[in-house]
């Protein structure tokens, strides 16, 4: 068994190397930076608890699987929407971020599972087989759902681009 100092150092190095990438993936899944931070934090807490048992080549897969499970289970159990008497003021979008916001809104229109497949397949650039294993579906389902998801994204983004002109 590795000494505790080595385990702490290995975990800290992994967090430093992969934390931002998991945060981007979490944001692409949920469309909310605060929720993305919560998802990543919960992912790393679970990862730390099992750090000694996880083997080196599977750490990324374990982290992605944990993040995905937390995202999908959270979407079923709680809604982050709140009813308010007045609409809060929003800060103006940063210059050049309109495309990113449009993509985030378009992704939000997909079902959580379909969004997860699109994000894992195209943002994380995972092979179809690995996405199928992570989500727990057949490879054909990943192919059909990502194709439908991308088609829906193209339609939403095209319609938005036409309405802006």
Q: What is the CATH topology assignment of the largest domain?
A: Rna Polymerase Sigma Factor, Chain: A
Radius of gyration of CA atoms, rounded to a whole number: 18 Å
Number of strands: 0
Structural class: mainly alpha
How much is the average pLDDT? 83
**Helix/strand order, N-terminal first:** HHHHHHH
Note poorly predicted spans.
76-80, 91-97
Q: Please give the CATH architecture of the largest domain.
A: Orthogonal Bundle
How much helical structure, as a percent, in the residues? over 70%
Q: Beta fraction of the residues? A: under 5%
Largest beta sheet, briefly?
Answer: none
Number of domains: 2
Domain RNA polymerase sigma factor 70 region 4 type: 102-153
Domain RNA polymerase sigma-70 region: 19-80
GO molecular function: DNA binding; sigma factor activity
Pfam families: Sigma70_r2, Sigma70_r4_2
